[in-house]
Structure formats: C-alpha cells, structure tokens
Amino acid sequence: MQTQETIAGIRFDQTLDAKGLNCPLPVLKAKLALNRMQAGEILHARTGHEIIQSTETDGVIEFFIRRTINPNKI
To answer: Are 74 and 21 in contact (CB under 8 A)?
Structure first.
C-alpha cells in the first residue's frame, strides 16, 4: 500500500472527484474505486455539496448531504 497524498492530516491512496456528477454516478464511482483498492487503503472523495452529518450503525455508514445552491453542471 503506497500513500499518494495527505490532506487535513489524513493520508489517502486514491481520490474520487465527484463534483458536478448527478446521482447515482458518485455512489457508483465510489463503489468501483473501492472495489479496485486493497483492504486498509483510504479513498478521498470530493464533492461540491455539504456533508452535514454521518452516522454508523451495525457497520452501515449513512451520510446526510445538503445540495449546494448552484451545483456544477456536466
């Protein structure tokens, strides 16, 4: 496992830039990226929207995302 970068003190192996993508593309692209990664590697995902909260229950992580006023168009 080779780390590419560090942002905000977190080392990560791959970046997914999901800014401007419409659903379900960000989720699909994250799934595909994670499938290609090794166990323990970290995916850095970028979005143009605001993640207002995340929760974890029984190993399932949920995100609450607020849509930005003017999202990037593709």
So the answer is: yes
